[in-house]
Amino acid sequence: MLIRLGSRGSRLALTQAAVVADALRSASPEVDVALVPITTAGDRDRSRPFGEIGSRGVFVKEIEEALLSGGVDVAVHSAKDMTSSAVDGLAVGAYLPREDPRDALCGADGIRSEMRIGTASARRRAQLLGLDPTLRIEPLRGNVDTRLRKRNERGLDAVVLAAAGLDRLGLADEIGYRFDPEELVPEAGQGALALQVREGAQELVAALDDPETRRRVEAERTCVSRIGAGCLAPVAAHHDGEALTALIAAEDGSWIQRRRGVDPEAVAAELLAAVP
Predict the structure, then answer these.
(1) Is 88 a catalytic residue?
(2) Measured distance between the N- and C-terminal CA atoms of the chain, rounded to whole angstroms
(3) What's the confidence (pLDDT) of residue 83?
(4) Residue 116, beta-bridge partner list
(5) How far apart are the C-alpha atoms of 103 and 179, rounded to whole Å?
(6) Which pLDDT value is given to residue 43?
(7) Which of 57, 187, 188, 218 is 20 to 30 A away from residue 244, measured at CA?
(8) Which of 73, 81, 100, 103 is catalytic?
(9) Weakly modelled stretches of the chain, pLDDT under 70
(10) Angstrom distance (rounded) from CA 218 to CA 223
(11) Per-residue DSSP letter, 185
(12) Is 57 left (phi over 0), alpha (psi -120 to 50) or beta?
């Protein structure tokens, strides 16, 4: 049996897809796996801010289209890149066990006043400025290797990346500081790999599903989906196993609202009611 895995073509994406391929072969030795690299809108346009390209989903839309058309059988996504709302005809058949969900500071061992920090994320920008309004946040696009290289080329003090991606690429030594999730609330789904399939084909990957990761990530995505329906500000959500912490902020960090609770819908409603 051949399973075609659709994935972005970056080094990190292909590394993640290879992990999934090995897991599928281990679960079912009769399975053969082929990797199908797919270029997304976020890969083609590496200069404009994500919000101008289409914000959420810029790294998954083309892969989802290939899945719907039958070009691939399973889509491998970083769960944080997925839209928070479900796509008709598709389902998340499995979440692999979550790795480190935290954001990582590369180039420094902590935040200092007036640092120049690179990130393309409005969520990270807002929270960093909330921590210290003297920081100079500079836009920085590209894959992990590109952003690490640009930090040196542009003389930035640091860049902020997802810790899990650095760990998966063997670049943990680049990390000077891992932000506590209560300090910098991660993107919903950060650190988790999601395996998306056509509705009805969940059995292809069901053996790989980690129930605890699913419970936490689905709570985060539910909260962000509810917030997204009524707010365009940067949002974040992280479930620590006991409860959910979610956040809405101004892009310049001038105001930040956080709420914590066990019901993602209720947490989202409280946040929306608190928006200035």
Answers:
(1) no
(2) 55
(3) 75
(4) 136
(5) 6
(6) 63
(7) 57
(8) 81
(9) 41-58, 84, 229-232
(10) 9
(11) P
(12) left
